[in-house]
Amino acid sequence: MESKFYEDAIDYWAQVPATLEGVLGGFEFISDDDVKGSSSFLEELFCCKNSSPPERNIALDCGAGIGRVTKFLLTKYFDKVDLVEQNQQFLEKAHHFIDNPDKIGTMYASGLQNFKPDKKYDVIWNQWVLGHLKDADLIEYFITCGNSLNPNGLIIVKENVTSSNKLEKDEVDSSVTRPMKHLLRIFKKAKLKIVKELKQEDFPKGIYPVHMFALRPNI
Ligand code: SAH
Asked: Strand, coil or helix: what is 89?
């Protein structure tokens, strides 16, 4: 039995339409700029100047929704993409929404707090979902992700960060938005080091700042 925090999030997403507008909370117009920002971030990580770029064989899209990140970003860079998403309707939509099905591997219907990958990935992409995990579960999840990377693999985190320096709770979708300090503390506890960090540009004013992090186990 999941706790109320997780149950409420399941209930919230169950009544959200399986559309771009739905998964982006009415902000579907930021998707193009979002993908542009993510592409340049990824390309810098792949670049020869980077000391140990990841391979481009297989990526995992976590909290994938209807497969927006998979369709517009990950399938452009990787041979195969697996998805994990707890909402079954979103996963069903993803089958139609993603237009190059040959690139799609396995779709896992699971909450990230319970997910144990059965293979290794070059990139594990987490976007606009980690606020749905409790701190202790997020630390465990990051450790699991760190153990599920191929050599030179990277965990990517692209999340809202509060500008208030305080943890902000959203009772409607049952999530939290963490301040930067809080997020950095969680990375540290999960023994992840930051390889690269960048703030997303060209987003409208009045929404949370969005930061991208490339992380690897600190060994
Ligand atoms: N990352 C996608 C979707 C963002 S919407 C994108 O950027 O387009 C947030 C998604 O997280 C929803 O699809 C929701 O069902 C999913 N989600 C919420 N809590 C989750 C959890 N605990 N585990 C896995 N997915 C979760």
From this structure: helix
